[in-house]
């Protein structure tokens, strides 16, 4: 059977294939290497920190039930086939909604991309350096396709961009490690593009992180199928072709011409200091500025001015569960005004029901403002005694222009890993921050398979 549209001109697919095939000969500049290592440490921290969450346990039971044969490590679990491990680990990486976000595509690219790279790398016996290079390549591919407004348009149409561009990142990483040739890469990209999925209606539920895991699994599966010669549509990533035509049917935004000449998307990545939807972070920063002045005083009204998309994706007015709290601008505002750090321990059933937080939650008014950037928030608090407090966050902490430090990252990593791997967080942080220099990757992966005792 011939590949569909194999004679069509495909400049985007040409560029993507060349980029994937050039991975091993492409040196990584120091800032790119640092960004990749930062992303790897963050990925492991948020994924390991998800151990003990019931959705993770349920998914592990499902994959264990498949009895898949393979050498791919499931974090804090056994080994499985590469698709199975990618599914579990990719889901774990996004379960706490604490993972990094590529703002250009409005997608969590590392979650699925690194899950795929690790799963295939384990299967193929790849070195840590090869896995890192594949991760960078996948990140660049997903970011490039999702840029120029396409990621925003996809989310606005209630399709989760992580399930789309994360899948493309995952397949690119897998294609590198499976050493696919040009035809294989083209087929793999087409097979991944035809599987993209995820509905934003699932935000605030455990189905959202499942999108990241499924994107990782879909990418690995696509690369495996292409390796075995499975044909595919190979023009799906062209401007006005299959992907954008399906996802943005009014054609107001299309896949732009892919160009890798203007720097690296991975250096434009955003990391989360707070365990909630990234669109809540600017208001958390603003609220933390005002918390000392408020200090328990009665509040008459709280106005939150944010971009309309922030309200669409994180506008739950009265969250009833910790997951919903992560997607509630109102709840995150209340947390921050109480001086809370919005770490994972602040998103619990107990905190969602706290009287002071519910009291503040009840007087929050979300005001959409198209003039405000996605990375921005304005907060106005009207105190019952007539005092008015205000704060403005142009860029939240973690943005590339206001980055977290390695010290910030170590604190985040430790807070997540120490509870599930007591006494091991410091050693693991040290090893993972030098991931590219790990000479015994199987030993590291075996350590990451151990649960607490």
Structure description:
- There is one protein chain.
- With 453 residues, this protein is an alpha+beta fold.
- The chain has two domains: 11-270, 2-methylcitrate dehydratase PrpD; 278-393, 2-Layer Sandwich (60s Ribosomal Protein L30, Chain: A).
- It has helices at residues 11-21, 30-49, 54-66, 82-95, 110-124, 128-146, 150-156, 161-177, 182-193, 207-227, 242-247, 281-294, 308-314, 322-325, 329-337, 349-352, 355-361, 406-417, 425-432, 441-447, and strands at residues 72-73, 79-80, 101-102, 269-270, 299-306, 364-368, 377-383, 388-393.
- Helix 3 runs antiparallel to helix 4.
Secondary structure elements and their pairing?
Elements: H1 11-21, H2 30-49, H3 54-66, E1 72-73, E2 79-80, H4 82-95, E3 101-102, H5 110-124, H6 128-146, H7 150-156, H8 161-177, H9 182-193, H10 207-227, H11 242-247, E4 269-270, H12 281-294, E5 299-306, H13 308-314, H14 322-325, H15 329-337, H16 349-352, H17 355-361, E6 364-368, E7 377-383, E8 388-393, H18 406-417, H19 425-432, H20 441-447
Parallel strand pairs: 5-6
Antiparallel strand pairs: 1-2, 3-4, 5-7, 7-8
Helix pairs in contact: 1-9, 2-4, 2-18, 3-4, 4-5, 4-10, 5-6, 5-8, 5-10, 6-8, 8-9, 8-10, 9-10, 12-15, 15-17
């Amino acid at each position: 059977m011939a590949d569909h549209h194999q004679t069509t001109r495909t400049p985007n697919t040409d560029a993507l294939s060349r980029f994937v095939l050039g991975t091993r000969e492409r040196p990584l500049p120091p800032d790119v290497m640092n960004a990749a290592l930062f992303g790897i440490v963050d990925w492991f921290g948020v994924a390991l920190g998800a151990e003990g969450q019931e959705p993770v346990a349920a998914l592990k039971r499902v994959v264990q039930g498949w009895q898949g044969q393979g050498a791919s490590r499931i974090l804090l679990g056994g080994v499985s086939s590469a698709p199975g491990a990618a599914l579990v680990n990719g889901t774990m990486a996004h379960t706490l909604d604490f993972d990094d976000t590529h703002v250009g595509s409005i997608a969590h690219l590392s979650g699925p991309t690194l899950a795929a790279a690790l799963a295939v790398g384990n299967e193929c016996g790849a070195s840590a350096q090869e896995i890192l290079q594949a991760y960078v390549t996948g990140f660049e591919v997903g970011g490039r396709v999702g840029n120029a407004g396409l990621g925003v348009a996809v989310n606005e149409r209630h399709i989760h961009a992580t399930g789309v561009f994360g899948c493309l990142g995952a397949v690119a990483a897998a294609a590198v490690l499976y050493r696919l040739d040009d035809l294989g890469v083209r087929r793999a990209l087409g097979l991944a593009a035809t599987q993209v999925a995820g509905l934003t209606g699932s935000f605030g539920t455990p189905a959202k992180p499942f999108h990241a895991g499924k994107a990782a699994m879909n990418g690995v599966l696509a690369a495996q199928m292409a390796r075995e010669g499975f044909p595919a549509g190979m023009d799906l990533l062209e401007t006005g072709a299959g992907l954008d035509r399906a996802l943005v049917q009014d054609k107001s935004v299309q896949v732009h011409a892919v160009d890798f000449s203007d720097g690296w998307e991975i250096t434009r990545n955003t990391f989360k200091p707070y365990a909630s939807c990234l669109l809540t972070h600017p208001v958390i920063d603003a609220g933390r500025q005002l918390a000392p002045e408020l200090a328990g005083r009665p509040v008459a009204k709280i106005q939150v001015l944010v971009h309309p998309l922030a309200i669409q994706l994180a506008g739950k007015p009265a969250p009833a569960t910790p997951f919903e709290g992560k997607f509630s601008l109102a709840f995150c505002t209340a947390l921050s005004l109480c001086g809370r750090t919005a770490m994972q321990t602040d998103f619990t059933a107990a905190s969602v029901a706290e009287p002071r937080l519910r009291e503040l939650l009840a007087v929050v008014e979300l005001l959409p403002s198209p003039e405000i950037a996605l990375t921005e928030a304005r907060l106005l608090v009207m105190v019952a005694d007539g005092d008015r407090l205000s704060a403005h966050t142009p860029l939240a902490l973690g943005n590339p222009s206001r980055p977290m430090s390695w010290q910030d990252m170590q604190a985040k990593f430790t807070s997540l890993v120490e509870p599930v791997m007591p006494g091991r967080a410091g050693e693991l942080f040290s090893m993972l921050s030098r991931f590219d220099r790990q000479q015994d990757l199987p030993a590291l992966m075996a350590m990451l398979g151990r649960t607490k005792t």
